[in-house]
Amino acid sequence: MNINLTMGMRLQEERKRLGYSQEGFSLLMGVSRRTQVSYETRDKNAGLLYLSKAQAKGLDIYYIISGNAITAEQQLLSETEANLLKIYRNLDRQEKESLMIIAQSLAKAPSKK
């Protein structure tokens, strides 16, 4: 199987995992829908800048490139941290902002020991 096509299939899986349509994700990434479709279904290779931006949006680019997902241990995250990050990445913008306010408030609160 063509490596670009396999990477494209994994890119599509990651996009869907985060709940984005092709149209929505292409807007988020600053590319045309046609380009997004090409990355996912044709021989067009997504470049490093695109993949870097995709990683910042929550996609696991190690999985996209290699076919192997990065585990919480490889990310140096505990399972709890990895689960929290997974939940966070599935929130919309407003929910993320609300969660950040709560987290910042909790971080400032004196700890109970």
TrEMBL record:
Q: Which InterPro entries match?
A: Cro/C1-type_HTH, Lambda_DNA-bd_dom_sf
A molecular function annotated in GO for this UniProt entry is: DNA binding
| Signal sequence, start to end | none
| Matches recorded under CDD domains | HTH_XRE
This chain belongs to which protein, by name? Transcriptional regulator
Q: What is the lineage of its organism?
A: Bacteria, Pseudomonadati, Pseudomonadota, Gammaproteobacteria, Pseudomonadales
